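Input for the complex:
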Amino acid sequence: MSVSERLERYRSEGLGQVKGWFEPDSAELMAVLLLHQIDLGLRGGAAEIGVHHGRSFLLLANGLAPGEGAVALDLFEQQGHNTDQSGKGDRRRFEKNLERWAPDVAVRMVASSSLEVTPDNAREVFGRPRMFSVDGGHTAEITRHDLRLAEASIAPGGIVVLDDMLNGHWLGVLTGTATYLLDAPALVPFAVSPNKLYLTDSTEAAADYTAHLRASSPDLLGKREVEFFGTTVDVYGQGAPRHQVPAPAPPTGPSGPSGPSGPTGPSGASGPSPELRRARAAARRARREAADLAQQLAALQATRSWRLLGPWRRVAGRVRRWALRELAWKH
Ligand SMILES: C[S@@+](CC[C@H](N)C(=O)[O-])C[C@H]1O[C@@H](n2cnc3c(N)ncnc32)[C@H](O)[C@@H]1O
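Predicted:
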């Protein structure tokens, strides 16, 4: 099976069966990028901080070329260090899912807090991955720290994918990202997709990935060149043509476009609709009633007893004025 076929199989069958947090649009975009990296001749494998049951890790694993491997770092059974309770790594389930969806991939599991790794020894732990997914602790401190680990270890031209930067429940990730990006970062953001921010290590690489995504996934592209920390990113998923709700179909029925009388309805090319005809008939009835009322009032005023009605005259005057207005009204 080719890498492309493996990715397709995992996206269509595996994604629905492995529990975790990974949106299909983002899986599609990451698959496109993994394949593009292979076409560019980039090698180095993949790494993820925070694997939970392996939902996103398995996409990375299926996007590797022969000879590449992947590193999975998670607290696993040391959940006492999971300060923000973001997910819960489960080694047994992760291994089961690996066996099911990526049995031939060389995976190195590291049971540790990412805070125990430093930028200086990051390459010893992660190697030089071409795609590095950051999805571990969701505090500002851990996010900034993990971005630095990714920055220190990715292969030249590699991609860092950060999870949950726009998730309102995890604003520590946004805070950590801002802190990182405002402090002379080596990584350049180039795209956003549901729950993911994509960064790479140079403006040239960012321009290449941007152009490739625009060409390969136009129906997922929601907005180009959105301002973001001194650069711009393309936004995928949100507002994309693929997700736009189609305009409601025109009404069908006797006067609708597909009605039995053809596009203009039973009364011909310029005939009014049934609703308009009903409204005009109601208006004619109202005008007739107003005319009758005006006549009755005129007859009443002509009688001697009118003078005795006193306060009722003002009311009658108002009714008469209303009736005259109704008479003057034209539909
Ligand atoms: C949101 S989940 C990961 C979701 C996963 N990537 C997926 O595709 O569903 C976060 C994971 O990070 C792990 N984690 C939390 N804090 C960590 C830390 N300081 N170092 C390493 N892993 C951590 C948790 O055990 C959990 O498995």
